[in-house]
What does this fold into?
Amino acid sequence: MMSDISAQEIVGLRKWLYRHLQPSAWNKDGLSPLNRFIFVVICLAVAVAVLESEPAIYQGREKWFFAAEMVFGSIFLVEYLARVWTSAENPAYGGGLRGTLRYIFSLPAIIDLLAMSTLFLVFVGNETSILRLFRLIRILSLAKLGRYSSAIRAMAEAVKSRRYELLMSLAIACMLLLTSSTLLYIVEGDAQPAVFGSIPRAMWWSIATLTTVGYGDVVPATVIGKLLAGVTAITGIGLIAMPTGILAAAFSDAIQRQREAKKHKEPVGQG
Amino acid sequence: MMSDISAQEIVGLRKWLYRHLQPSAWNKDGLSPLNRFIFVVICLAVAVAVLESEPAIYQGREKWFFAAEMVFGSIFLVEYLARVWTSAENPAYGGGLRGTLRYIFSLPAIIDLLAMSTLFLVFVGNETSILRLFRLIRILSLAKLGRYSSAIRAMAEAVKSRRYELLMSLAIACMLLLTSSTLLYIVEGDAQPAVFGSIPRAMWWSIATLTTVGYGDVVPATVIGKLLAGVTAITGIGLIAMPTGILAAAFSDAIQRQREAKKHKEPVGQG
Amino acid sequence: MMSDISAQEIVGLRKWLYRHLQPSAWNKDGLSPLNRFIFVVICLAVAVAVLESEPAIYQGREKWFFAAEMVFGSIFLVEYLARVWTSAENPAYGGGLRGTLRYIFSLPAIIDLLAMSTLFLVFVGNETSILRLFRLIRILSLAKLGRYSSAIRAMAEAVKSRRYELLMSLAIACMLLLTSSTLLYIVEGDAQPAVFGSIPRAMWWSIATLTTVGYGDVVPATVIGKLLAGVTAITGIGLIAMPTGILAAAFSDAIQRQREAKKHKEPVGQG
Amino acid sequence: MMSDISAQEIVGLRKWLYRHLQPSAWNKDGLSPLNRFIFVVICLAVAVAVLESEPAIYQGREKWFFAAEMVFGSIFLVEYLARVWTSAENPAYGGGLRGTLRYIFSLPAIIDLLAMSTLFLVFVGNETSILRLFRLIRILSLAKLGRYSSAIRAMAEAVKSRRYELLMSLAIACMLLLTSSTLLYIVEGDAQPAVFGSIPRAMWWSIATLTTVGYGDVVPATVIGKLLAGVTAITGIGLIAMPTGILAAAFSDAIQRQREAKKHKEPVGQG
It folds into this structure.
C-alpha cells in the first residue's frame, strides 16, 4: 500500500482517467465526454485525410492540412500515452507493468500507434507513392472507432453466428464464378480475345454479372454467349437471395429468442 | 356559452368542416369526400409540375399550365384558410386562438403554405433558376399527402423500430465505402487519375459498385484494381442483404405479434 | 330426362370431355393427358411466335412457320369449340345454355378466342405493324397457361395478401423517384440539358438508379449531382429491401400457419 | 473366410484405405489427412487450369504447367484406382465385384475419370479448340469436391425443399421476360432494329433489366420504350424479392424446426 499522498493522488488520477478513456469502465449510459471528443477527432481526421487526397481541394491549402494533421496527430499521441499509462488499471490485461506491456502489443494499441503516424509526415518528402500509403494509414484510424462501437461488434457476432452458411454461399458463388467464366471463355474466347481470351479475363465479366453490378464494359457478342450470360444473370439473383435469406433468418431468430427470454421472465399465467 | 343563433351556426359549420378536413376526425371508413377531392388535386398539381418542366410539353401551352397552377394554388389557398380556421377544433393543438397560432407554425401548415406558393408565380419573371426552385416547391406539395397516409406513417414506424440496426448497416456501408475507395485510389490512382486520382473521386465508382448499380462509366483498368473491384462487388451483396434481413425480421416480428395478440383474445382451449 | 340413347351417348361424351378439359374436374393427380397435350401446344405456339419475329430465323422458312401457325390455330379452334360445348357441364357457369353464354363472355374464353386469331393470318398482308400486333396476340396465348397453374394463382394470392404493404412500398418508390429526379433536374439541368433538362427526362436516370439497374447511359457530371446520385443509389437498396422484407414475412407467415394447422391435428402429448 | 495371412493383410489394408478415402467412413471429425491432401490437390489443379488459360501467364512456362498437370493427373489416377479397389468395402454399392462394377459406372467415379484426363494431354496437339475443351474438363474436377461438402449438399437440400416455389418464380420470370421483350420489340423495333428488331433480340435487353444487371449496351430510345423499361425494372425488383422471400422463409423455418426439436429433448420444467 502506498503511504505517499502525492502517489495516491496520481493513482486516483489514473483511475479517473481510465474510467473516462475505457468505454466499458464508464458507469453511465453512452460514451464519456472525453471519448465523445476523441470520437469526433477520429471522424474529422478521416474526413481531412479523404479531402486531402483531392488535388483541387489540397492545392493552395497545404499548410492548413498540415496543421490539421499535426493537431490530430498530437491528440492521438496524448491519447495513446494516456491509454498506455491507464492500461495498468485494465483487469483484461492483468494489471501492473506486465499488463501495460501486454496492452502495448495488443491490436487496439498498435492501431492507435499507426493512426499517430501522421505526426511523422514531416520527415516524408513529396513522393506520391509514399504519401498515398500514409493516407491509407490515416484512413485506418477509422479502425480506432472499433473501440466504441459495441453495436458493430454485436452485428458482427450476428453475422458470425451464421458464418458457416455465409461461407457456404461464398463457396457456391466461387464455383458459379468459375463455371460461368470457363463457359464464356470457351464460347466467346475467339470473338473477343481481349476480354474473354482466358478464364481469369472472363472472370471480370462474370463477377460483374453474378453480383448484378453489370458495368457493361464487357458484354458477350455471340448468341450462345448471350444465352449463357442470361443464365448467369438469373443465377446471380439466387446468389443475392442466398445470403439475404440466411441473414433474414438469423435476425428473425435473434429477435424471437429475445422475445422468448422476456416471456420466461414474466410468467403469463398458471399452467 | 353563445346565445346568438348565427354564431352557433358558424361554430356548427366549423365543426362540420373540421370533421371533413381532419382525416382522424372522420367517423367513417376511408377519407371524407372533401379530402378525396384534395388528394386528387395534390396528385394533379404534382403531375402538372412534373410535365411543365419538360419544354417539349410546356412550350405552346404556357397559358394552360399557368391556368392550372392558378386553379390548384387557389384550391390550396382555400384549403389552407379552412384548415387554419378549423384548427381551433383540433384538440391536438389545444383549441382556441392559441391552438390556431400553434397550428399555423406546425409543419403541416408550413408545407401547405409552401404548396400554395404557385399563386405568386405571377410576380416571378422568366429566370430559369428561380423557376426551377419554384417547381421543386410545387413537387413538395407531395408532402401534403403525408396527412392522409396513415399507412405510410405505420410503415415509417416499422422502419423506425429498427432505425438503430439500419443506422448500423449504414455506418458499415460508409466504412466499406471509405475502405474500398482508398484502396482503389492507391491502386488505380496512377492509371486513371481523372476518376481514381483522389479518394472522393474513387468514391463515385465505389458507391456505384457497392450498391450494385454499376453505371460502368468508371471501371478499374489494372489487374489488382479489378481484383479489389470484385471483392467490393461481393461485399456490396452483403450490404444489400443486411438491411433486407433486418427489415424482413422486423416485418415478420410485427406479424407474429399481431397473431399472438389475436391468440390471447380467443382462448384456444383449457390448459 | 332424355330417353334417346344417342342423345345420352352425346351427354356422356360431353361429360367425359369436360372431365378431361377442365383441370378442376380431373379426379386424378396432375393434368389429364388431353390438357398435357394442350399445355405442350401452347408452349410450342409461344416458342414459334418468338422465333418467327427474328428475320434470320424466319426468312426462307416462311412456309414452315405458316404451317405451324395453322396447325396450332386449328388445335386452339377445336379446343375452343370443345370448351364452349362442355361449359354447360361446368357448375361455375350455372349450366345449360345460359352457362354456355356466360362462359363465352368469360375472360378465359376470350383469351382462347384471341389465341386462335393466328388462323386469320391468311387475310393479313405483309404490313409489319399489323404483323407485330399479331405476334403480340400470339404471345398472349401464354395467358392460356393461367388455366393450369393453380400454383401461380396460389403465389399470386400470397402476394395479394400483402398487396396493401406492397402498394405502400410502390407509393414510397414513386415519391423517391419524384424527389430524386426533381433534385437532379435542378442540379444537373444546366450541365446536361438533354438528359436532365426536365423532370420526366431525369426520371429515366432516376429509375435506373433506384432499381440498381444502372444502365450508365446517363450519369450525373457535377459534384453535387454525384453526391445526390450516391444518396439515391443507397436509397434504392432500401427500396429493394422493403418488398423483399414484406414478401419474406408473408412467406414465413404462411409456412408457420401451415405448421400450426398440422400441430392442432396431431396432438403432441398430454400437458 | 480367408486363411492366408498375406490376403488378410491386403483386406486389412483395403479397409484402412477405405476408411481414409470415404469421408462418411471416417470416424473422427472433419476429413481424414488423405482426403485433406486430395482436397488441396483438387483446388491446386483447378487453379492451375484457370491460370494456364491466360497466355500472359502460360507463355514461357509451358513445361512447368505440363509438369503440374502430369503430377495432378497421376495423383488423380492413383486416387481413382484406390477408390475403385476400396469400393468393394462400400456397403452403398453392395460390396464384392458387383459393387466395384456398380461404383465404376456411378457419377462420382465418372467425374474422377474425367478429371484424370489431363494425363492424356500428351496425345493432344496444339489445336486451341480441343485445348479449351480439355480446360473445361479440368475445371470439372471442381465437381470432385462434391464428395467432401456435406454442407453444400445440406444447402442444396434446403433449396430443394422449396424447389416448387423457386420453379414457380422462375416460371413467372420467364413470363415477365417474354411479355417485356414482346412489348419492347413492338415499341422499339423500328427505332433500333439491330437490338430490338425481334423478340429474341429484345430478350437480351429484357434479361439484363429484369435481373437489374443493366449492362447499358442496349437502352430504349423512344419515350414509350423508356416508360416500359421503367416498369420492367421495377418488376425486376419484385423478381429479386420473390426467391429471396422464399429462401428467407425456408431458412427461418429450418432454424425454428431445429429449436423446437431441441425444446422437446430438454424439458423446460413441469407444466
Remarks:
- Chain D has a mean pLDDT of 83.
- The interface with chain B takes residues 212-216, 244-245, 248, 252 of chain D (CB under 8 Å).
- Chain D has two domains: 5-148, 160-265.
